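Weekly puzzle thread! Below is a chain. First person to post its structure in token form gets bragging rights.
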Amino acid sequence: MVIIKKDRGMASSLQRAIRTNGFFSLYDGLSAQLVRQMTYTSLRFHLYEKGKEQMDEPRNLDLLDRVLAAALAGCAAGVVGIPMELVNTRMQVNRALPPEMRWNYRNVFDGLYRVTREEGWTRLYSGCLLSFIRSSFITIGQNATYDQAKEFYMEWFKLKHDSTFVHLISSTTAACICAPIVKPIENLRALKMVDPRGLISAISYMMRFGPRGPFRGIVPCVLRMIPNTVITFLSFEQLRVHFGYYEIEDYKR
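Winning reply:
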């Protein structure tokens, strides 16, 4: 929806993709997405948690502290994730391009190898500034917002940190806030990774639908981000509850 010139909606795009290329074409780029999640997303969570531990008062972090930790964690993790994002984006839009412009990567490793061989390794970091900004924004929108929402809901509903209900509503809140914040940057990044021309060209193309341009594809973005964020944080919290640790205070007897 971001790349094609025609103003097609989500339902029309889905029908066209399935009718033209089959149902499994909806999973184009899956290998790149899986490798990206296992590396970049895991690192983003780890660095954010470590960043919070380095704060002076880890038990009394305010929103600004969380935003700072999330922004730094997102930038650092972006160094690892950008090459996979490039290959993932190209694999997803490949079928929508004219045959002579297609890359036809077989999988993420074939994509990384061919980009390096045919375009140079620096091309793996095409649109890196936008990717760093997106990575910071998504870490702020998900991790920092989740922690802030969790703290609010725990106090509001008088529940403990291990409540699944708190995890569910906090992650849903984070996803709903994150999607509109990230979408304009995500659209620009996708255009820059597909088209090597300058940023001005990408902005001009993005604005072809007027004010809707920066938020093109917001509906599928929200429908993807909510379950993705909920599953991620529910899994993360269950692992922390069952396999984490508790700090044991020493009491004088």
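Puzzle host: Confirmed. Bonus trivia for everyone else. Residues 10-243 form a domain with the Mitochondrial carrier fold fold (CATH 1.50.40.10).
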